[in-house]
Design brief:
By secondary structure, the protein is α+β, with helices and mostly antiparallel strands. It is built from nine helices and 17 strands. The strands form five sheets. Strands 4, 5, 6, 7, 8, 9 and 10 form a seven-stranded antiparallel beta sheet that branches. It comes from Epilithonimonas vandammei.
Protein backbone atom coordinates (compact mmCIF):
# COMPACT_ATOMS: atom_id res chain seq x y z
CA UNK A 1 0.00 0.00 0.00
CA UNK A 2 2.81 2.38 0.89
CA UNK A 3 4.61 1.66 -2.38
CA UNK A 4 1.40 2.32 -4.32
CA UNK A 5 0.94 5.61 -2.47
CA UNK A 6 4.51 6.66 -3.28
CA UNK A 7 3.98 5.79 -6.94
CA UNK A 8 0.75 7.77 -6.98
CA UNK A 9 2.46 10.79 -5.40
CA UNK A 10 5.24 10.61 -7.98
CA UNK A 11 2.71 10.51 -10.80
CA UNK A 12 0.79 13.48 -9.37
CA UNK A 13 4.04 15.45 -9.13
CA UNK A 14 4.90 14.51 -12.69
CA UNK A 15 1.73 16.15 -13.97
CA UNK A 16 2.01 19.17 -11.69
CA UNK A 17 -1.06 18.23 -9.64
CA UNK A 18 1.21 18.00 -6.56
CA UNK A 19 4.31 20.04 -5.79
CA UNK A 20 7.73 18.77 -4.75
CA UNK A 21 6.90 19.38 -1.06
CA UNK A 22 3.99 16.91 -1.35
CA UNK A 23 1.28 19.59 -1.39
CA UNK A 24 -1.48 19.88 -3.95
CA UNK A 25 -1.06 22.74 -6.37
CA UNK A 26 -2.50 26.01 -5.11
CA UNK A 27 -4.12 26.41 -8.49
CA UNK A 28 -6.63 23.74 -7.46
CA UNK A 29 -9.44 24.67 -5.09
CA UNK A 30 -10.17 22.68 -1.93
CA UNK A 31 -13.36 21.47 -3.61
CA UNK A 32 -11.48 20.22 -6.67
CA UNK A 33 -8.95 18.38 -4.49
CA UNK A 34 -11.66 16.71 -2.39
CA UNK A 35 -13.59 15.55 -5.44
CA UNK A 36 -10.42 14.30 -7.09
CA UNK A 37 -9.38 12.26 -4.03
CA UNK A 38 -12.86 10.71 -3.95
CA UNK A 39 -12.49 9.42 -7.51
CA UNK A 40 -13.66 12.52 -9.35
CA UNK A 41 -12.22 13.72 -12.64
CA UNK A 42 -9.83 16.60 -13.31
CA UNK A 43 -9.68 17.99 -16.83
CA UNK A 44 -6.68 19.80 -18.29
CA UNK A 45 -5.01 20.19 -21.68
CA UNK A 46 -1.81 20.89 -23.53
CA UNK A 47 -1.15 21.91 -27.12
CA UNK A 48 -1.97 18.47 -28.52
CA UNK A 49 -4.41 16.78 -26.16
CA UNK A 50 -7.24 17.28 -23.70
CA UNK A 51 -6.43 15.19 -20.61
CA UNK A 52 -8.58 13.69 -17.87
CA UNK A 53 -7.14 12.53 -14.53
CA UNK A 54 -8.74 10.26 -11.95
CA UNK A 55 -7.59 8.00 -9.09
CA UNK A 56 -8.62 4.34 -8.85
CA UNK A 57 -7.11 1.89 -6.33
CA UNK A 58 -4.25 4.30 -5.54
CA UNK A 59 -3.37 4.54 -9.22
CA UNK A 60 -3.51 7.64 -11.41
CA UNK A 61 -5.54 7.14 -14.58
CA UNK A 62 -4.72 9.50 -17.41
CA UNK A 63 -6.78 9.60 -20.61
CA UNK A 64 -5.76 11.74 -23.56
CA UNK A 65 -8.25 12.98 -26.15
CA UNK A 66 -7.09 14.51 -29.40
CA UNK A 67 -7.60 18.23 -29.08
CA UNK A 68 -9.45 19.00 -32.28
CA UNK A 69 -10.90 22.33 -31.15
CA UNK A 70 -9.52 25.58 -29.87
CA UNK A 71 -10.66 27.07 -26.59
CA UNK A 72 -13.48 29.55 -26.19
CA UNK A 73 -13.56 32.69 -24.08
CA UNK A 74 -16.86 31.67 -22.43
CA UNK A 75 -16.28 27.95 -21.77
CA UNK A 76 -14.66 26.02 -18.91
CA UNK A 77 -12.62 22.84 -19.32
CA UNK A 78 -15.67 20.76 -18.33
CA UNK A 79 -17.81 22.50 -20.97
CA UNK A 80 -15.15 22.13 -23.66
CA UNK A 81 -14.87 18.43 -22.82
CA UNK A 82 -18.66 18.03 -23.00
CA UNK A 83 -18.90 19.58 -26.46
CA UNK A 84 -15.94 17.68 -27.93
CA UNK A 85 -16.74 14.26 -26.42
CA UNK A 86 -20.46 14.29 -27.26
CA UNK A 87 -20.14 16.28 -30.50
CA UNK A 88 -23.39 18.09 -29.73
CA UNK A 89 -24.40 21.65 -29.02
CA UNK A 90 -24.29 23.10 -25.50
CA UNK A 91 -26.88 25.48 -24.10
CA UNK A 92 -25.49 27.80 -21.44
CA UNK A 93 -27.09 30.56 -19.39
CA UNK A 94 -24.58 33.38 -19.01
CA UNK A 95 -26.65 35.56 -16.66
CA UNK A 96 -29.88 35.05 -14.73
CA UNK A 97 -31.75 35.94 -11.58
CA UNK A 98 -33.91 33.94 -9.19
CA UNK A 99 -34.23 32.23 -5.83
CA UNK A 100 -31.52 29.78 -4.78
CA UNK A 101 -33.14 26.34 -4.49
CA UNK A 102 -30.02 24.17 -4.10
CA UNK A 103 -26.26 24.38 -3.67
CA UNK A 104 -24.28 21.20 -4.13
CA UNK A 105 -21.66 19.22 -6.02
CA UNK A 106 -22.16 17.04 -9.05
CA UNK A 107 -20.83 15.95 -12.44
CA UNK A 108 -21.13 18.65 -15.04
CA UNK A 109 -24.33 18.26 -17.09
CA UNK A 110 -25.02 15.03 -15.13
CA UNK A 111 -22.33 13.32 -17.22
CA UNK A 112 -20.44 10.77 -15.06
CA UNK A 113 -17.46 10.97 -17.43
CA UNK A 114 -17.09 14.69 -16.83
CA UNK A 115 -15.61 16.37 -13.79
CA UNK A 116 -17.47 16.97 -10.54
CA UNK A 117 -17.84 20.57 -9.55
CA UNK A 118 -19.88 22.93 -7.38
CA UNK A 119 -23.23 24.05 -8.75
CA UNK A 120 -25.98 26.44 -7.73
CA UNK A 121 -29.58 26.04 -8.84
CA UNK A 122 -31.88 29.05 -9.07
CA UNK A 123 -35.56 29.31 -10.00
CA UNK A 124 -37.66 32.06 -11.56
CA UNK A 125 -40.65 32.45 -13.89
CA UNK A 126 -38.78 30.59 -16.68
CA UNK A 127 -38.03 27.57 -14.50
CA UNK A 128 -34.83 26.25 -12.93
CA UNK A 129 -31.28 26.95 -14.10
CA UNK A 130 -27.95 25.41 -13.05
CA UNK A 131 -24.61 27.20 -12.93
CA UNK A 132 -21.43 25.08 -12.63
CA UNK A 133 -17.99 26.26 -11.51
CA UNK A 134 -15.11 25.39 -9.23
CA UNK A 135 -14.99 29.00 -8.06
CA UNK A 136 -18.58 29.02 -6.79
CA UNK A 137 -17.64 27.71 -3.31
CA UNK A 138 -15.93 30.93 -2.37
CA UNK A 139 -18.48 33.24 -4.02
CA UNK A 140 -21.50 31.50 -2.46
CA UNK A 141 -20.23 31.55 1.13
CA UNK A 142 -22.48 34.53 1.96
CA UNK A 143 -25.59 33.06 0.29
CA UNK A 144 -27.95 30.20 1.12
CA UNK A 145 -31.07 28.50 -0.33
CA UNK A 146 -34.00 30.90 -0.27
CA UNK A 147 -31.90 33.95 -1.12
CA UNK A 148 -32.81 35.81 -4.29
CA UNK A 149 -29.75 36.62 -6.39
CA UNK A 150 -28.45 37.95 -9.68
CA UNK A 151 -25.64 35.78 -11.12
CA UNK A 152 -23.46 36.69 -14.10
CA UNK A 153 -20.56 34.84 -15.68
CA UNK A 154 -17.79 37.41 -16.00
CA UNK A 155 -15.18 35.34 -17.82
CA UNK A 156 -12.86 32.34 -17.70
CA UNK A 157 -9.80 31.85 -15.49
CA UNK A 158 -6.87 29.91 -16.91
CA UNK A 159 -4.56 27.92 -14.62
CA UNK A 160 -1.29 26.47 -15.93
CA UNK A 161 0.59 23.49 -14.45
CA UNK A 162 4.19 22.56 -15.15
CA UNK A 163 4.41 18.87 -16.07
CA UNK A 164 6.83 16.31 -17.41
CA UNK A 165 5.51 14.14 -20.22
CA UNK A 166 7.77 11.59 -21.93
CA UNK A 167 10.79 13.27 -20.40
CA UNK A 168 9.84 16.71 -21.71
CA UNK A 169 8.74 19.71 -19.66
CA UNK A 170 5.31 20.83 -20.81
CA UNK A 171 2.47 23.05 -19.63
CA UNK A 172 -1.07 21.83 -19.10
CA UNK A 173 -3.94 24.21 -18.53
CA UNK A 174 -7.37 24.28 -16.92
CA UNK A 175 -10.21 26.73 -17.51
CA UNK A 176 -12.81 27.65 -14.90
CA UNK A 177 -15.91 29.83 -15.00
CA UNK A 178 -15.77 33.11 -13.08
CA UNK A 179 -18.98 34.56 -11.61
CA UNK A 180 -20.30 37.70 -10.01
CA UNK A 181 -23.17 37.08 -7.56
CA UNK A 182 -25.07 39.85 -5.78
CA UNK A 183 -28.45 40.27 -4.06
CA UNK A 184 -31.29 40.64 -6.57
CA UNK A 185 -32.61 44.08 -7.52
CA UNK A 186 -35.57 44.30 -9.88
CA UNK A 187 -34.19 47.33 -11.70
CA UNK A 188 -30.86 45.57 -12.40
CA UNK A 189 -32.11 42.11 -13.40
CA UNK A 190 -30.32 40.52 -16.36
CA UNK A 191 -30.72 37.38 -18.45
CA UNK A 192 -28.51 36.07 -21.23
CA UNK A 193 -28.26 32.67 -22.92
CA UNK A 194 -26.05 31.18 -25.64
CA UNK A 195 -25.69 28.00 -27.67
CA UNK A 196 -22.21 26.66 -28.44
CA UNK A 197 -21.41 24.16 -31.20
CA UNK A 198 -18.29 22.48 -32.55
CA UNK A 199 -17.55 23.20 -36.22
CA UNK A 200 -15.26 20.46 -37.51
CA UNK A 201 -14.67 22.25 -40.81
CA UNK A 202 -12.43 24.92 -39.33
CA UNK A 203 -11.97 23.34 -35.86
CA UNK A 204 -13.59 26.16 -33.94
CA UNK A 205 -16.48 26.56 -31.55
CA UNK A 206 -19.25 28.76 -32.87
CA UNK A 207 -21.67 30.51 -30.51
CA UNK A 208 -25.11 32.07 -30.91
CA UNK A 209 -26.76 34.48 -28.47
CA UNK A 210 -30.33 33.19 -28.10
CA UNK A 211 -31.49 35.70 -25.46
CA UNK A 212 -33.78 37.60 -27.81
CA UNK A 213 -33.94 35.11 -30.70
CA UNK A 214 -37.23 35.37 -32.57
CA UNK A 215 -38.80 33.14 -35.22
CA UNK A 216 -42.53 33.43 -35.92
CA UNK A 217 -43.09 30.66 -38.46
CA UNK A 218 -41.45 28.03 -40.65
CA UNK A 219 -43.09 26.89 -43.91
CA UNK A 220 -46.15 28.88 -42.98
CA UNK A 221 -46.50 27.02 -39.69
CA UNK A 222 -46.65 29.35 -36.70
CA UNK A 223 -44.37 28.37 -33.82
CA UNK A 224 -45.80 28.26 -30.31
CA UNK A 225 -44.05 30.04 -27.44
CA UNK A 226 -42.99 26.65 -26.07
CA UNK A 227 -41.44 25.65 -29.43
CA UNK A 228 -39.57 28.96 -29.54
CA UNK A 229 -38.25 28.41 -26.01
CA UNK A 230 -37.09 24.91 -27.00
CA UNK A 231 -35.28 26.36 -30.02
CA UNK A 232 -33.55 28.97 -27.84
CA UNK A 233 -32.24 26.14 -25.65
CA UNK A 234 -30.74 24.33 -28.64
CA UNK A 235 -33.29 21.52 -28.63
CA UNK A 236 -34.88 19.91 -31.67
CA UNK A 237 -38.40 21.06 -32.47
CA UNK A 238 -40.70 18.72 -34.38
CA UNK A 239 -42.87 20.52 -36.93
CA UNK A 240 -44.63 17.36 -38.17
CA UNK A 241 -43.95 13.65 -38.63
CA UNK A 242 -41.35 14.34 -41.30
CA UNK A 243 -39.57 17.51 -40.24
CA UNK A 244 -37.51 18.73 -37.28
CA UNK A 245 -35.65 22.03 -36.96
CA UNK A 246 -32.90 23.15 -34.57
CA UNK A 247 -30.79 26.22 -33.96
CA UNK A 248 -27.22 25.75 -35.13
CA UNK A 249 -24.50 28.41 -34.56
CA UNK A 250 -22.55 26.99 -37.50
CA UNK A 251 -25.48 27.14 -39.96
CA UNK A 252 -24.82 29.47 -42.89
CA UNK A 253 -28.22 31.18 -43.02
CA UNK A 254 -29.47 34.32 -41.31
CA UNK A 255 -31.81 32.47 -38.96
CA UNK A 256 -29.11 29.95 -37.95
CA UNK A 257 -31.48 27.02 -38.50
CA UNK A 258 -30.73 23.47 -39.52
CA UNK A 259 -33.50 21.18 -40.75
CA UNK A 260 -33.97 17.46 -41.10
CA UNK A 261 -36.56 16.05 -43.50
CA UNK A 262 -36.78 12.26 -43.70
CA UNK A 263 -38.04 12.07 -47.26
CA UNK A 264 -36.14 14.86 -48.95
CA UNK A 265 -33.72 17.35 -47.42
CA UNK A 266 -33.97 20.84 -48.88
CA UNK A 267 -31.76 23.44 -47.25
CA UNK A 268 -32.26 27.15 -46.76
CA UNK A 269 -33.35 29.40 -49.60
CA UNK A 270 -33.45 33.18 -49.86
CA UNK A 271 -37.00 34.29 -50.51
CA UNK A 272 -38.04 37.95 -50.62
CA UNK A 273 -34.97 38.92 -48.64
CA UNK A 274 -35.60 36.45 -45.79
CA UNK A 275 -34.81 32.85 -44.94
CA UNK A 276 -37.26 30.00 -45.27
CA UNK A 277 -37.10 26.23 -45.65
CA UNK A 278 -38.56 24.42 -48.64
CA UNK A 279 -40.00 21.46 -46.78
CA UNK A 280 -43.21 20.90 -48.69
CA UNK A 281 -45.55 18.54 -46.87
CA UNK A 282 -47.03 17.17 -50.06
CA UNK A 283 -43.60 16.11 -51.28
CA UNK A 284 -42.77 14.58 -47.92
CA UNK A 285 -45.93 12.48 -47.78
CA UNK A 286 -45.69 11.36 -51.38
CA UNK A 287 -42.04 10.44 -50.95
CA UNK A 288 -43.00 8.37 -47.92
CA UNK A 289 -45.63 6.53 -49.97
CA UNK A 290 -43.02 5.81 -52.60
CA UNK A 291 -40.69 4.40 -49.97
CA UNK A 292 -43.45 2.04 -48.85
CA UNK A 293 -43.79 0.64 -52.42
CA UNK A 294 -47.37 1.79 -52.99
CA UNK A 295 -49.07 2.32 -56.35
CA UNK A 296 -47.30 3.90 -59.29
CA UNK A 297 -49.88 6.69 -59.25
CA UNK A 298 -48.27 8.01 -56.09
CA UNK A 299 -44.88 8.15 -57.83
CA UNK A 300 -46.48 10.19 -60.60
CA UNK A 301 -47.90 12.64 -58.05
CA UNK A 302 -44.50 12.81 -56.35
CA UNK A 303 -42.89 13.58 -59.72
CA UNK A 304 -45.40 16.37 -60.42
CA UNK A 305 -44.66 17.98 -57.05
CA UNK A 306 -40.92 17.72 -57.65
CA UNK A 307 -41.28 19.40 -61.03
CA UNK A 308 -43.27 22.22 -59.43
CA UNK A 309 -40.53 22.69 -56.86
CA UNK A 310 -37.89 22.68 -59.60
CA UNK A 311 -39.72 25.47 -61.46
CA UNK A 312 -39.96 27.45 -58.24
CA UNK A 313 -36.24 27.05 -57.54
CA UNK A 314 -35.34 28.03 -61.09
CA UNK A 315 -37.26 31.28 -60.72
CA UNK A 316 -35.48 31.97 -57.40
CA UNK A 317 -32.11 31.18 -58.97
CA UNK A 318 -32.78 33.86 -61.57
CA UNK A 319 -33.85 36.28 -58.84
CA UNK A 320 -30.82 35.55 -56.61
CA UNK A 321 -28.04 34.41 -59.01
CA UNK A 322 -25.32 34.64 -56.32
CA UNK A 323 -27.07 32.36 -53.84
CA UNK A 324 -25.21 29.06 -54.02
CA UNK A 325 -27.69 27.36 -51.71
CA UNK A 326 -30.48 27.73 -54.26
CA UNK A 327 -28.28 26.14 -56.93
CA UNK A 328 -27.46 23.32 -54.51
CA UNK A 329 -31.15 22.74 -53.78
CA UNK A 330 -31.96 22.84 -57.47
CA UNK A 331 -29.36 20.12 -58.10
CA UNK A 332 -30.84 17.97 -55.32
CA UNK A 333 -34.35 18.24 -56.79
CA UNK A 334 -33.15 17.64 -60.38
CA UNK A 335 -31.33 14.50 -59.28
CA UNK A 336 -34.42 13.25 -57.47
CA UNK A 337 -36.54 13.87 -60.58
CA UNK A 338 -34.11 11.80 -62.66
CA UNK A 339 -34.25 8.97 -60.13
CA UNK A 340 -38.07 8.94 -60.10
CA UNK A 341 -38.32 9.10 -63.90
CA UNK A 342 -35.85 6.23 -64.20
CA UNK A 343 -37.89 4.10 -61.79
CA UNK A 344 -41.15 4.93 -63.56
CA UNK A 345 -39.69 4.06 -66.99
CA UNK A 346 -38.53 0.68 -65.69
CA UNK A 347 -41.96 0.07 -64.17
CA UNK A 348 -43.67 0.93 -67.47
CA UNK A 349 -41.49 -1.60 -69.29
CA UNK A 350 -42.47 -4.29 -66.82
CA UNK A 351 -46.14 -3.38 -67.19
CA UNK A 352 -45.91 -3.57 -71.00
CA UNK A 353 -44.43 -7.05 -70.76
CA UNK A 354 -47.23 -8.20 -68.50
CA UNK A 355 -49.91 -6.73 -70.77
CA UNK A 356 -48.33 -8.39 -73.82
CA UNK A 357 -48.48 -11.81 -72.19
CA UNK A 358 -52.14 -11.37 -71.25
CA UNK A 359 -53.54 -9.69 -74.37
CA UNK A 360 -51.46 -11.15 -77.23
CA UNK A 361 -53.94 -13.34 -79.30
CA UNK A 362 -51.31 -15.73 -80.70
CA UNK A 363 -49.83 -16.29 -77.26
CA UNK A 364 -53.34 -16.97 -75.91
CA UNK A 365 -54.20 -19.52 -78.70
CA UNK A 366 -50.85 -21.30 -78.34
CA UNK A 367 -51.48 -21.71 -74.68
CA UNK A 368 -54.97 -23.20 -75.34
CA UNK A 369 -53.61 -25.66 -77.93
CA UNK A 370 -50.94 -26.79 -75.54
CA UNK A 371 -53.52 -27.29 -72.81
CA UNK A 372 -55.77 -29.39 -75.15
CA UNK A 373 -52.82 -31.59 -76.17
CA UNK A 374 -51.97 -32.19 -72.52
CA UNK A 375 -55.59 -33.28 -71.82
CA UNK A 376 -55.63 -35.72 -74.80
CA UNK A 377 -52.35 -37.31 -73.73
CA UNK A 378 -53.66 -37.68 -70.18
CA UNK A 379 -56.85 -39.42 -71.45
CA UNK A 380 -54.82 -41.84 -73.61
CA UNK A 381 -52.70 -42.82 -70.67
CA UNK A 382 -55.81 -43.77 -68.72
CA UNK A 383 -57.21 -46.21 -71.44
CA UNK A 384 -56.95 -49.97 -70.57
CA UNK A 385 -54.28 -51.98 -72.46
CA UNK A 386 -55.46 -54.96 -74.66
CA UNK A 387 -53.38 -57.94 -75.88
CA UNK A 388 -53.79 -58.94 -79.50
CA UNK A 389 -54.98 -62.58 -79.95
CA UNK A 390 -53.59 -65.17 -82.28
Amino acid sequence: MENNTNLLTDELKKFGIMTENNQFSKKLSDNEIKNFLKGGILIAENDQNRLTFSITDDKLNVNAYTKDIINHKDLSSAELFEISSKNSNLYKVMADYGTITHIGKGNFNHNPDNEKTTFVEIENERGKTLFFGNKLDEILKDFKPGDKIQINQTGIEKSTFKTEIDGEAKDISRYDNLFLIRPFEEKNKQFQSKIFELDLKDKTIKDLDTTNYELKSVNGQTLSERQLQQLRKGKEVKLDEETTIQLSPKADNDKKLSASVKALLITSIMIDGGITFMMIKGIQKLAKMQEENKKQLESQKYLVELQKLKSFLQSKAEQYPDNKKIISDLNVVSKEISNVQSKNTEQEKNDDTVRLKVNDRDTYEDANRKKEEEIIEEEKSQLPAFKRGR
